[in-house]
Automatic annotation (TrEMBL):
It is found in: Cytoplasm. This is Uracil-DNA glycosylase. Residues 50-211 form the Uracil-DNA glycosylase-like domain. Keywords: Cytoplasm, DNA damage, DNA repair, Glycosidase, Hydrolase. Gene3D superfamilies: Uracil-DNA glycosylase-like domain. It catalyses: Hydrolyzes single-stranded DNA or mismatched double-stranded DNA and polynucleotides, releasing free uracil. One of its GO terms (cellular component) is cytoplasm.
Length: 221
């Protein structure tokens, strides 16, 4: 398991991996992947960390669960592999980008291109059983990813946290708003977006303005 996580993150999280809760969590994950179809592929569970080292993090986007449909989840929140149809939330993200900064709707829904620019795409729960949303919640992943958020909060400065929806907004209590920037809005899911809680948040232009103010390179969304 540990060989599939970036060494920089591993050195910070090794203590977490050794805690009883995580040992129990990983036993559960092993059993689930052995008995059921689960996502993302096991080798991609820690993909968010492999795609973006802590020293490079300048934006954090928080999701809740991986996609639970075949071939969708790739370990980066809201992202799908090349060639996979875009789920509704991702479509709405791209539509907001189009409206906000005028960037054309992309063919690929693979957000690894964002991760390589310093965007950590972190789900609160890193695994899920096929077609069963929330099936791996409250097993220990939230404790682990809360620790990740706390590490980013303490070891970096000027990170832009994008908290979309009620669940993500709860994570603001882990973030020092004096050191970092927090942008909140409704979730990009159709239920929220169609009620007017997502479109027009301009989070992508606002993020780049904040990065520019911090003399950091902007994200090519």
């Amino acid at each position: 398991m540990q060989k599939n996580i970036n060494p920089d993150w591993l050195s910070l999280l090794q203590e977490e991996f050794d805690k009883p809760y995580f040992i129990d969590l990983w036993r559960f994950v092993e059993e689930e992947y052995a008995a059921h179809v689960c996502y993302p592929p096991k080798i991609e569970i820690f993909n968010a960390f492999n795609a973006c080292a802590l020293k490079d993090v300048k934006v954090v986007i928080l999701g809740q669960d991986p996609y639970h449909g075949p071939g969708q989840a790739n370990g980066l929140c809201f992202s799908v592999a090349d060639g996979i149809s875009h789920p509704p939330s991702l479509k709405n993200i791209f539509k907001e980008i189009e409206s906000d900064i005028g960037k054309s709707y992309p063919e690929s829904g693979n957000l690894e291109r964002w991760a390589k620019q310093g965007v950590l795409l972190l789900n609160a729960t890193l695994t899920v059983r096929e077609h069963e949303a929330g099936s791996h919640q409250k097993k220990g992943w939230e404790t682990f990813t809360n620790r990740v958020i706390s590490l980013i909060n303490s070891k970096t400065e000027g990170v832009v946290f994008l908290l979309w929806g009620g669940y993500a907004k709860q994570k603001s209590k882990l973030i020092d708003s004096e050191k970092h920037h927090i942008l909140t809005s409704g979730h990009p899911s159709p239920l929220s977006a169609n009620r007017g809680y997502w479109f027009g948040n301009k989070h992508f232009s606002k993020t780049n303005s904040l990065l520019q103010r911090n003399t950091q390179s902007q994200v090519n969304w």
